[in-house]
Amino acid sequence: MMRSLRNRLILSHLLPLLIVVPLACIALIYTLETQVVLSELSEKLTERANLIIEVLEDQPDIWEEPEQAEIFITDIGSQVQGQLILLKSDGSLIASSSPGSNDQAPDLEGLETALGGQSSVIISYNLIRPGAEVLLPVIDAHQELLGIVGVTQTLGGILSRIGRLRSLIVITLVIELLLGFLIGFTLARNLERPIGSAARGVIEIAEGKQIEPIPIEGPDEIRQLSVAVNILAERLRLLEETRQRSLANIVHELGRPLGAIQSAVHILLKGTGDPNVEHELLVGVDGEIKRMQPLLDDLSLLHGQVTGTLTLNQQLVSLSDWLLASLLPWRAAALDKGIEWGADIPKDLPAIHMDPERMAQVLGNLLSNAVKYSPKGGSVTVTAGADGAEVWYQVSDTGPGIDPEEQGHVFEPFYRSQKVHRFPQGLGLGLTIARDIVEAHGGRLELTSVPGEGCQFTAHLPLNSPQNT
């Protein structure tokens, strides 16, 4: 039963109340009875004893005549609460208002003090005889002890005065415990619900299930936990989608050329009898294999980046000369498609350390996409420059652009747009590899795009990149 988080939280709220509140009530009752009730009682008993002594001053014979003392006690006892006692100077009993005690003196704690001529006021709070005892010596004009007047009263005689107070305290205690239980149960439920939701979410994630976003509620720490679980679930969902999409892309991109190659091989195995046909088939097979090679290279490069085995052969390169030479084939491709070409490359760009082959792959990917997705009559523009501690080059096109919701995903492996179909072909690795190569040089690759107005990809490279060979 106590293994439940809710039950433990309830107990954690109630346990202090179950321990502290009863002890506090007991201490309160004890303080009221000892410091207030018994103290007040002792004062009243002292006043009664003094009044009795004043009356006895007019009846000095009472200390020698027990019968008169008994009559006196009987007459005044009905008017005074508590037990009245008259003792001789030797401590023996003369008379008492308590029935059956006339032959034996009661056990009085302050008797020795009173016999010594001193007043004795004793408050006793115990389980056997709680109460108050007042003994006042009676001194004559010659300073001799005539006797002792005693007034005692037990706490049991005045319990009716504080009975209602005790009942009120007990009722308050019960109400407080009930309220504590209700408050503890509510707080425990409010804490257990978000924690339970997060725990169930983590368990379902561990079991490979997809979960709905759990509600964000409760204290800040639990809200942060819920947010973390939702982020984890979303990332795992995206990873699973990426895995499925990557497998589908690989099957699609490799299946088509392999199918063409297999068909050509079957024809060649049967024999055509026509050398020209066989030559065309072999050329076609060679072309399909060459088209597959970039896909395999992309997969190989991605694997190297994931496993941390990607190496760069950096060397000092004149960025202006490198860009002008690298742009020539892409300029021809753009003009062949009827796309307007523009290039603004300053001749005084600084030389930087970089891997020219890897960076050519980045530039080629950006220009390939720009030419591929810019319509006939559109334009592709390449610009470059230096800014502070870095250099940059930008590839702009007038293609369909990328939706804002997808701009954060285009650099993910195997991602292809589903809305504007900007990336309908290939494995979806080009931009991922381009970004990773730029970052391996200590730079960054940025995207700016407005749907319907094209894209601008900008590669930033540091001037002080260390040379790695």
Structural features:
single chain; 469 residues; alpha+beta; Beta-Lactamase; Helix Hairpins; Heat Shock Protein 90; five-stranded antiparallel β-sheet; five-stranded mixed β-sheet; 12 strands; 53% helix; 17% strand
What can you tell me about this protein's structure?
Helix content is 53%, strand content 17%. The longest helix is centred in the N-terminal third of the chain and has 52 residues. The chain has three domains: 157 residues, Beta-Lactamase (2-Layer Sandwich); 88 residues, Helix Hairpins; 148 residues, 2-Layer Sandwich (Heat Shock Protein 90), CATH 3.30.565. The chain has a five-stranded antiparallel sheet with strand order 2-1-5-4-3. A five-stranded mixed sheet has the order 7-9-10-12-11. Strands 6-8 form a two-stranded antiparallel ribbon. The protein is of the alpha+beta class and 469 residues long. The protein is rod-shaped, with a radius of gyration of 52 Å.
